């Protein structure tokens, strides 16, 4: 849960603790909002040093002690021309963490760069989201002593659009915490059944806006989703296929958007067992599934007029007597036979069945899958971009735009048919691994076989972008991307 209470205010004089003001750097001077400039000029009258020390360089901070409010923090925003949404996200999150480190519990902060005529609603949304994102910590098992309890967002004026953007930001921030908490939960608690239970709760709490359907292991086998069943066979906790459907009366699309998220609750590698260092953190291998569930929840809370379905195949990839084995040949939901080259390439197997099922059942307008799929993608792009592949230029462009806008950035890799040659098999229709190289691309080629080349489809590999290595915690990548993408899709 988001700890901070958020409020949109116009009167800075009510702030008792800390007022945060942003300044651009301009021709050797600083340039702030009307309020900021007034306060800065007043204070610097008596202190030439402040004027000398604080130049408004990006990230620069000067804390001044006063009487009411007790403190004022000047924050440098850099040059106005460089102050893009990315800079806004960065500085909002930096400031929130800086204030928390001071041990202060509540503060008022300007919408940075709010020069009245410039204040656009999206700036308010971005700032609300980013400061909350920066403050997040996984606290289910260890509470931190320093917490921000309240943030007041100071605006020079309020319009219905600004109010709406503020509420959207608040909803997204809350759900980002929800998604990250789900992912960070250890695997012995966040089992496939628990993930399914969470999806049920999301549906229940949506007030009938979201319908949920859970297929259990027996039903999966019965319908021929043998890949999900095979991957999940050694798990003490059996696999499921979760479907969440949001279909508001005023939906604008005749065919649904379908999100499919990988829900591996723990990935040991199976019989092709991982090493100690690569197994660490594999309780977050359901990050794609969590993003899909979180996106449906958020979209329903925002009442978007779009028909959207979320599917999450969920299983544990473990080792037991029943484990599926290298060399096994398994018939997928769509009838294709799959040779198992490596049991650690399990994500693409469960997604394959889920995507084939989604294609048949929903005939999607667009299918997007999201998965912590390959170490190769993490090698290629690190943590700052998710890998993107897809079959539809129009949607590829749109998702890149949503990435830039939301901060969940994506980078396209080539879905060239040459790579697909590698996943051929001598004994089955397909093999679940390629050669040593371009692992992120061969994985995507494999997935495309589930739905065919005609289906408009985007694939997001978040093996790197889904988790921050230094703290080993989830980023919740995908939630903000999807919300932005769908907001842009509304006509
Ligand atoms: N869950 C992993 C991918 C992963 C790696 C996620 C690092 C997050 C961080 C996936 O199931 C996997 O093990 N992929 C294998 C595929 C290989 C056997 C073809 C990999 O990338 O090594
Ligand atoms: Zn694996
Ligand atoms: Zn995995």
Topology of this protein?
Layout: E1 5-9, E2 18-26, E3 29-32, H1 34-45, H2 48-53, E4 61-65, E5 71-78, H3 85-102, E6 106-110, H4 121-135, E7 150-154, H5 160-184, H6 192-205, E8 210-215, H7 217-223, H8 226-232, E9 240-246, E10 257-261, E11 263-267, H9 276-279, H10 287-301, E12 308-317, E13 329-331, E14 337-339, H11 347-362, E15 366-371, H12 375-381, E16 386-390, H13 393-406, E17 410-412, H14 417-420, E18 430-431, H15 439-451, E19 457-461, E20 467-468, E21 473-474, H16 479-489
Parallel strand pairs: 1-7, 2-5, 2-6, 6-7, 10-12, 10-15, 11-12, 14-18, 15-19, 16-17
Antiparallel strand pairs: 2-3, 4-5, 8-9, 9-12, 13-14, 16-19, 20-21
The structure holds ligand BES and zinc ion (ZN) (2 copies).
The site of one zinc ion has 5 residues, from strand 11.
Could you explain how this protein is built, in words?
By secondary structure, the chain is α/β, with parallel strands linked by helices. The chain folds into two domains: 3-155, Leucine Aminopeptidase, subunit E, domain 1; 177-490, 3-Layer(aba) Sandwich (Aminopeptidase). It has 16 helices and 21 strands. The strands form four sheets. Strands 8, 9, 10, 11, 12, 15, 16, 17 and 19 form a nine-stranded mixed β-sheet that branches. Strands 1, 2, 3, 4, 5, 6 and 7 form a seven-stranded mixed β-sheet that branches. α3 (85-102) crosses α4, α5 (160-184) runs antiparallel to α10 and α10 (287-301) packs across α16. The longest helix is centred in the middle third of the chain and has 25 residues, at 160-184. The chain binds ligand BES and zinc ion (ZN) (2 copies). The site of ligand BES has 16 residues, from α12.
């Amino acid at each position: 849960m988001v700890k901070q209470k958020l409020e949109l205010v116009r009167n800075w004089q009510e702030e008792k603790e800390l007022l945060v003001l942003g300044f651009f750097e301009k021709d050797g001077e600083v340039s702030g909002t009307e309020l900021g400039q007034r306060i800065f000029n007043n204070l610097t009258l008596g202190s030439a040093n402040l004027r000398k020390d604080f130049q408004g360089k990006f990230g620069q901070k000067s804390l001044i002690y006063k009487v009411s409010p007790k403190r004022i923090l000047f924050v440098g925003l850099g040059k106005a021309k460089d102050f893009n949404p990315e800079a806004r996200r960065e500085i909002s999150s930096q400031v929130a963490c800086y204030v928390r480190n001071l041990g202060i519990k509540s503060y008022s902060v300007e919408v940075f760069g709010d020069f009245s005529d410039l204040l656009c609603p999206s700036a308010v949304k971005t700032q609300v989201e980013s400061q909350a994102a920066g403050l997040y910590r996984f606290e289910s098992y260890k509470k931190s002593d320093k917490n921000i309890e309240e943030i007041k967002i100071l605006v020079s004026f309020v319009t219905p659009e600004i109010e709406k953007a503020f509420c959207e930001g608040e909803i997204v921030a809350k759900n980002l915490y929800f998604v990250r908490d789900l992912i960070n939960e250890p695997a012995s608690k966040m089992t496939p059944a628990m993930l399914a239970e969470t999806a049920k709760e999301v549906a229940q709490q949506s007030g009938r806006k979201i319908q949920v359907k859970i297929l259990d292991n027996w039903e999966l086998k019965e319908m021929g989703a043998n890949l999900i069943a095979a991957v999940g066979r050694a798990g003490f906790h059996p696999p499921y296929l979760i479907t969440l459907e949001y279909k508001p009366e005023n939906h604008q699309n005749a065919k649904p958007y379908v999100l499919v998220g990988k829900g591996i609750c723990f990935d040991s590698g199976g019989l092709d067992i991982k090493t100690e260092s690569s197994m660490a953190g594999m309780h977050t291998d359901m990050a794609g599934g969590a993003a899909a569930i979180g996106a449906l929840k958020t979209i329903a809370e925002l009442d978007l007029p779009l028909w959207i379905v979320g599917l999450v195949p969920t299983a544990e990839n473990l080792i037991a007597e029943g484990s599926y084995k290298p060399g096994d040949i398994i018939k997928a939901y769509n009838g294709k036979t799959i040779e198992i080259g490596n049991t650690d390439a399990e994500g693409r197997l469960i997604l394959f069945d889920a995507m084939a099922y989604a294609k048949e059942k929903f005939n999607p307008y667009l299918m997007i899958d999201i998965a912590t799929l390959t170490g190769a993608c993490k090698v290629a792009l690190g943590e700052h971009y998710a890998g993107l592949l897809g079959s539809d230029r129009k949607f590829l462009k749109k998702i890149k735009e949503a990435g830039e806008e939301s901060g969940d950035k994506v980078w396209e890799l080539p879905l060239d048919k040459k790579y697909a040659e590698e996943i051929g098999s001598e004994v089955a229709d397909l093999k679940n691994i390629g050669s040593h190289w371009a692992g992120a691309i061969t994985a995507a080629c494999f997935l495309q076989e589930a739905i065919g080349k005609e289906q408009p489809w985007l694939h997001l590999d978040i093996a790197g972008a889904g988790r921050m290595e230094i703290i080993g915690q989830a980023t919740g990548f995908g939630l903000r991307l999807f919300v932005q993408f769908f907001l842009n899709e509304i006509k």
